[in-house]
Design goal:
With 152 residues, the protein is of the alpha+beta class. It has helices spanning 48-65, 86-96, 129-140; strands at residues 3-6, 21-24, 27-30, 73-80, 103-108, 118-125. Strands 1-2-3-6-4-5 form a 6-stranded mixed β-sheet, with helices on one face.
Amino acid sequence: MKKEIIHTEAAPKAVGPYSQAVKIGDFLFTSGQVALDPETMQLVDGDVQTQAHQVLKNLDAVLQAGGSDLENVIKTTVFLADIADYKAVNAVYEVYFSDSKPARSAVAVRDLPLGALVEIEAVAFVKKQKEKDTLEAFREVELDVPNVSTVP
């Protein structure tokens, strides 16, 4: 199997000697995402929930670039600057993983890069191109079904 480096402008560029994600086989391994705005490369202003939303948007952008999405995340690791933020981050996390909850670890750490309050990394399954094409084609099909209330 060949290792493929994943990069997207839709997520913050790496702030160190690492890749946004690496794809190998049917799996995508993301680096931890913090609440950097991809355009300004500055932490978003706000509390831990505001940061968690940006983190998950960044994570989703990296997953999409690697041929996956939040529905196909298998495992996440959540790093918190303060364990007291666990409940607040859960409330945001549940919005993004409402139907397809991956396995997860959450830990408090002393500090996070750039003074971030939360960081999340993920491992995801990558859909085969044929499966993706079939799903997209299915979504584009318009059904011409008569309204049953007008049928005699």
